[in-house]
Amino acid sequence: MITKKCVxxxxxxxxxxxxxxxxxxxxxxRECKFCRQSRYKNGIDNDxxxxxxxxxxxxxxTYNEMLKKQAEKCLICKRHQxxxxxxxxxxxxxxxxxxxxxxxxxxxxxxGRLRENTEIMLSMIKYVExxxxxxxxxx
Length: 139
Prior knowledge:
single chain, mainly alpha, two-stranded antiparallel sheet, 4 strands, 4 helices, 2 domains
């Protein structure tokens, strides 16, 4: 009997309980038919709940509580959730997995692209103050 572990419920199940998927190495989807069925039956919020649990170890209620504590604003730029198109990203440490805050996509991507390096951030602030702003003011 061939088995596989579901990425959602973490149960080890018979391979026949996973739908076929030719794009996967083993020829079957990553989630069992039970989890997949539950996800589609319960809609998008359940899909987010499953994703948050799988990637960050939190449920949708925890995400919503964090959002409420932040007054539905990005912790860095203070934009309100209603001002941006995408739901706020769960900012987390890639080394420890510890969740830090909810950030808008721009701030989350910027933080990652700056490699969370304060020297680069300070250098960027200096560049904006000394080069960018004077040019803008002289225009």
